[in-house]
Amino acid sequence: MEVKETYNGTIREVTLGVGDKAVVVGGETALSFYTFEGVMPRKPVIAFDVYDEEPADWPAPVVEPYKDVLGDPVKWALKCQNEYGADMICLQLVSTNPTGTNRGAEEAAQTVKAVADAIDIPMIVYGTANVEKDTEVLAKAAEAAQGKNVLMGPIEEDNYKTIAAAALGFQQAGATHSPIDVNMAKQLNILATQLGLNADRIIIDPTTGALGYGLEYVYSVMERLRLAALTQNDSMTQMPIINTIGKEVWKAKEVKVSTEEEPAWGDAETRGIIWEAMTAIALLMAGSDILVMRHPKAVELTRDFMALMA
Amino acid sequence: MALTGIDIFKLLPKTNCQECGVPTCLAFAMKLAAGQAELSSCPHLSDDAKAALGEASAPPIRLVTMGSGDDAFKAGGELVMFRHDKTFFNPCGYALLIDDTSGASEIDGKLKQVNESHFVRVEQDLKADMVAVKCSSGKPETFVEIIEKVKAATSLPLILMSDNPEVIHAGMAVNGEAPLIYGANKDNYEKMADLAKTHKTALAVISDNGIDGLNDLVPKIEALGVKDLVLDPGYRNPKETLQSLVYMRRGALVKKIKAFGYPTIAFPVEETSDEMMETLLAGLYTCKYGSIIVVGNLKPQYALPLYVLRQNIYTDPQRPMQVKQGIYPIGTPNENSPVLVTTNFSLTYFIVTGEVEGSRVPAWMLIQDVEGLSVMTAWAAGKFVPEKIAPFIKGSGIEEKVKHRKLVIPGYLSQMSGELDDELEGWKVEVGPREAADLPAFLKAWSA
Amino acid sequence: MSKIIASAAIRGAHKIAKRAEESLNNAIQQKGEAQEVGFPDTAYFMPIALALLGVKVKTLGDFVPVLEKAKSMLPPEPAEHVWLPYLGNTLDAGIATILFEEIIEAVKYITGPNPVDGIWLGATDDVILRMQGIKLVDGSMPGFAACVGAMPTNAEAVKLANELRERNILVFMFGETNGKSMAEQLAEEGVQMGWDSYLVPYGKDITAASYALGFAARSAMTFGGIAPGGLKEAHDILLYNKNRVFAFVLALGEVDDEKYATAAGAINYGFPVIADTDIPQILPTGICSYEHVVSNVTHDKMVETAIEVRGVKIKITKINVPVPYGPAFEGERIRKEQMFVEFGGQKSTAFEYLRMRDLDDVENGKIELIGPDIDKMPEGSAQPLGIVIDVAGRKMQQDFEPVLERQVHHMINGAEGAWHMGQRDMNWLRISKSAKDKGFNVKHFGEILLAKLIDDFPAIVDKVQVTLYTDEKAMADLMEEARQAFIHRDERVAGLTDESVDTFYSCTLCQSFAPNHVCIISPQRLGLCGAYNWLDAKAAFEINPAGANQPITKGDTIDERLGQWTGVNEVVVQKSNQSVQNISAYSIMIDPETSCGCFECIVAILPVANGVMIVNREHSGMTPTGMKFSTLAGSVGGGAQTPGFLGVGRQYITSEKFISAEGGFKRIVWMPKELKDSLESQLKKRGESIGIPDFFDKIADETVGTTEDEVLAFMQKVGHPALEMESILEFSV
């Protein structure tokens, strides 16, 4: 009875960070957690969201664990590293958003440097997906994080040249971000590699949708990317995948509404934790290698899940 | 390889008699090919054609119905390994486990969960599908007592769980409807098969060594004449359960192994003692090929995310979820609040309203029915164009709700602003941002 | 290669070799071999030695083998009467020269004079390199100009610097002419210099060229990800510069032997030399992308020539119009009462015409208005307008003319207060009163077209010149030329057959929602959405080689009648993610093409009528198949092969290849009236060409009936040819 699938491709291994705490992601030779027909050499990693300014719209369950450090990205990052055992920090430069605080690139770069110097785990630096502003901000951030081998993103079709060049110039890795579309993800990877960014310095950010908010789209796009990578040996889809889960989950209505407002939906904190962990599990099964998450309990659950599956 | 519409058409009478309710034989053939019609609808089919088509149209995974009426639950009938290949057709079912040795208050609590974990989202009912009653007491009378209690509280189909045919026999006597017997193992399968046949119920087949055991046991039970089976590879750890579920789905669809051509059943409740983890494992089997998923808790904070996951995974990728056409007030808008129009593609709706909510600027959202297409797709398909939008706005009743006449359209439709201005008399069309994320800034700067 | 240049370069290399050897020996004598040597704040040691030889020079002693290696590359100085030295020798001499120059400059850091002195900046540190390099890679800085020597006057030096800076081209300055360097000229004029102002004075000595070439070498190592080592890596580093670093040398004033030698070094990087003096030219391409040495260029043409020779692409970041520009204005209408002036729209003579020209015949950026401007036009009037766009590009093809010309509509509509409709000599434009009040005039049409063509199509457009005619007499000849060109283009499209080309194109634009669908676009079968024909796909590939349109080599013919080729099938298998194995370009019954869902029309067989019907997307009524368009679309779309059904673009209906396997055009038995009428002239023409002039009248429509029986009765009445054809249902090869 032959029911095993044979795969002929492998997901690339990408190293992020430096020193003892550097992480490697990727390396799968089968669909994620299909260890019965291929190799998954390591578990996906979890990065904690750290904002570079006090977040304005986080619901209570995710404010609580960080209430003593919100507004201080260095302390915040250290808390994630030391108390919650984060594999990585995802520093989100939300303060640079032109429709928000609109902080300048230099100032953002200082935060990047301060956080990078304080922690010893690898770092992800994310802009606000504002094409023009990110170009400026991430180029400076790349310089500020020199020697730290960080993952920078999102690299979009409209600004890939500058950001990928900055990644190249300062030896950082890049997250190529495309709008839930297999071919556009591939195309952006082709463009970035043509520019000179090595394929093993790229992580795919396929655009994440939270549970109930487009999860099914990203789920299928990731499955398709993985199948192309593993069964068709399609080189430009063989990058590890990152999902920015926390940011999407914690703005969903079902997560924001309190127990008092909607008693029929049950305890709000548990509901939020499950919402985040459930999104994580679905995307893990679809091929995620880096999960960016928020609630420590959701992270713990996701880790427990991976331990059960290993 | 499935038959094409033309292949099927060649076997039909080609009379266009319309007795099947479809205008032409060709149209009927296309429906058959798409699985949207029953072969039996054609009264003039020759026996040869019936045989040829019947064989070809037999589904690789049997569709098994449990229960009856509104609460009947259908499992199986799947045709693809990945939802993007076509769709996952029959949403998995969640069954809440009730143990007959539990105390009365615990059982009452669970029954409450079954009845209260009921939500409506995107015009779909999200709810539990079955109740599993497990005989741990070993006593038929206790089992019967609990079954009666459950039946008094819910009309959902039941799964009767015991490896003792006597116990099942007692349970069946009070059940009355076609539930699922759980189940047949290599020691009791003959008696269980008898019970299933007698009561015309579905029968779960329980392996003691994964898919090999099923491959062995299923043909024996089939040979006894039971048609509706549900398969349990028998592991109680997620790693091996996942492996089995993947192999069974692939075996049935790709490798054409007939023994695996049935719906599956998985037991997160028996794989962990942690409520949270149980819910996540139920999520795992929702993604990966579980047909019936038995859990120990359906408290709303667990049930809601689980049901929404199922809604996502089982959405037809080519037929997006839709919301109803109409005016949606966000916050408490007044006669000076902004008016925005977009399409009824559920994702568009969720993302746009989410950002509007986040802006804390009260607003009127006008959602137009374009058969669930996104803005650009609907525009390209000619469904979200000035000549369609204008009558919708005029007929929506928004003119009674606001004093101003300014309509914000999605930024990607800037090219039609002028034309809509012409069509929509008395209104001024404003081009909104291209990305929903930029709506808060836009709305904060907006004035009537 | 010119012997004069070769001889001079080799002579120059020997001179510089001597200097390098002397200065190195001298330094070793003074400080010892162990003396550390290095440029400030860099991880690239001596970048040229590292890049080209793979040597990490840390001490003066480490320089010894570098010097020896460079010396070994030196060809012998050519004797007057020997006709020997050619490209290879000269290039070797160039490489040796820049290695020597790097030694000389490095030694200066130890024994003096300090290269960092006054205006002179000396070596570039890594942070600056990276920050500048990002601009080079992302295209915001198109390249750098290495200015060697000095201009005749200070004013000309300032002008040249500004011309380069305006284009965001970085200006490196070194070397001197008659004791003066360009940087000194700028300093005398009070021009602020430094990296931020794009003006980099490296050093007065010609050997400071090594900083510029070291910068280029480090760019390749940093941004090209090339780890230096052996010969292959050295070659890759040079190649990276040729392909990615759009630099050129401007040789100002007399070119002495040392300058020739240094220029030979630059040519190794693919950097061409543009000289203002009458030195021998090296025109044929080889190492550089285009010409190697272009000489005797007048000062006012120097920048333009350099840009062209190096193939530098300059981005226009802001469109020079007095009104806002962007996609938000695309849909804006200008009503009669808001309009100041209009052109065309059958109210006045107007046309737009984009033509390909030779590079020499286009003056990039030139916009000319022939006739009165807007201020001479009466309010509310209709005026004549001819828009002639001359485009040149090394990769431009005549076939791209219509593709680019069709963009005029989008481009002009992006400006607030400007409005455009139609095309060719049936166009219609308006300028609003408010735009006129803000200063918008006729020439601004040119500004928009110029900027957008260069910016949006850098792969095929190098130069653009726009001429606008508002004088009806002046434009008569060009209008005639344009009309001839339109006729010629239509003939070209009509004359293109699938047999006449060996390349088709794939289109996977719709895979976002139809993951396994791929359109095969051939000259006689356009994409089923109707938006992409073969020429469009061809141009799209040139414009974006990584995009959704990829060339397909047809390969061997498997079946001519069905239209199956090995190459096409291979691509289909791959791009359909293995879900489709074979595709017939010309058959509806056997391996028909799949559909994404964007089709303009659906063709479906009518088995009883023994033909096909065609229904367009706009038709909402019942069809003789018993299915409406929406139902048919549900069966046909999604990337699955559905024999008997086909999604097509309207223009395919009258193609000679329209389901030609099953007998083609003659199979058409029913169409909605609206579709039939809209294609009337084409259908009639096609009917004539197959010898059935009244075929148009044999096609039934919904006024005849919407059931197969009614269609059949009609066919029998009019004697439809499909009735005599072989059974379409049983069609086989």
Describe the protein:
The complex is a heterotrimer of chains A (310), B (448) and C (733). Helices cover 40% and strands 15% of the residues of chain A. By secondary structure, chain A is of the alpha/beta class. Chain A has a single domain, classed as TIM Barrel (Alpha-Beta Barrel). In chain A, the strands form two sheets. Chain A has an eight-stranded parallel β-sheet. Chain A has a two-stranded antiparallel ribbon with strand order 1-2. In chain A, helix 2 runs parallel beside helix 3, helix 5 crosses helix 6 and helix 7 packs parallel to helix 10. With 448 residues, chain B is α/β, with parallel strands linked by helices. The longest helix of chain B is centred in the middle third of the chain and has 16 residues. The mean pLDDT of chain B is 91. Chain B has three domains: 53 residues, 3-methyladenine DNA Glycosylase II, Chain A, domain 3; 250 residues, Alpha-Beta Barrel (TIM Barrel), CATH 3.20.20; 120 residues, Rossmann fold (3-Layer(aba) Sandwich), CATH 3.40.50.11600. Chain C is an alpha/beta fold and 733 residues long. Chain C has three domains: 308 residues, Rossmann fold; 166 residues, Bifunctional carbon monoxide dehydrogenase/acetyl-coa synthase(codh/acs), Chain M, domain 3, CATH 3.30.1650; 225 residues, Bifunctional carbon monoxide dehydrogenase/acetyl-coa synthase(codh/acs), Chain M, domain 5, CATH 3.40.1470.10. At the A-B interface, helix 7, helix 10 and helix 11 of A face helix 8, helix 9, helix 10, helix 11 and helix 12 of B.
Which helices and strands appear, and what pairs or packs with what?
The complex is a heterotrimer of chains A (310), B (448) and C (733).
Chain A: E1 13-16, E2 23-26, E3 45-51, H1 60-63, H2 73-82, E4 88-92, H3 105-118, E5 123-126, H4 131-144, E6 151-155, H5 160-169, E7 173-177, H6 182-195, E8 202-205, H7 215-231, E9 242-244, H8 245-249, H9 253-256, H10 268-286, E10 290-293, H11 296-309
Parallel strand pairs in A: 3-4, 3-10, 4-5, 5-6, 6-7, 7-8, 9-10
Antiparallel strand pairs in A: 1-2
Chain B: H1 5-11, H2 25-33, H3 47-57, E1 64-66, E2 73-75, E3 93-99, H4 104-116, E4 119-121, E5 124-126, E6 130-134, H5 140-153, E7 158-161, H6 165-175, E8 180-184, H7 189-199, E9 202-206, H8 210-223, E10 229-232, H9 238-253, E11 265-266, H10 275-287, E12 292-295, H11 300-313, E13 326-330, E14 339-343, H12 346-359, E15 363-368, H13 375-380, H14 386-396, H15 398-401, E16 406-409, H16 417-423, E17 428-431, H17 439-445
Parallel strand pairs in B: 3-6, 3-12, 6-7, 7-8, 8-9, 9-10, 11-12, 14-15, 14-16, 16-17
Antiparallel strand pairs in B: 1-2, 4-5, 13-15
Chain C: H1 3-31, H2 47-53, H3 60-73, H4 87-111, H5 126-138, E1 144-149, H6 154-166, E2 170-174, H7 182-188, E3 199-203, H8 209-223, H9 231-244, E4 248-252, H10 257-268, E5 273-275, E6 293-294, H11 302-310, E7 339-344, E8 350-356, E9 367-370, E10 381-383, E11 385-392, H12 401-405, H13 408-413, E12 418-421, E13 428-432, H14 433-437, H15 443-456, E14 463-469, H16 472-495, E15 503-507, E16 519-521, H17 534-543, E17 549-553, E18 557-559, E19 564-565, H18 566-575, E20 601-606, E21 611-616, H19 629-636, E22 645-648, E23 668-670, H20 673-678, H21 680-689, H22 695-698, H23 708-718
Parallel strand pairs in C: 1-2, 1-4, 2-3, 4-5, 5-6, 7-10, 8-11, 9-14, 21-23
Antiparallel strand pairs in C: 7-13, 11-14, 12-13, 15-16, 15-17, 18-19, 20-21, 20-22
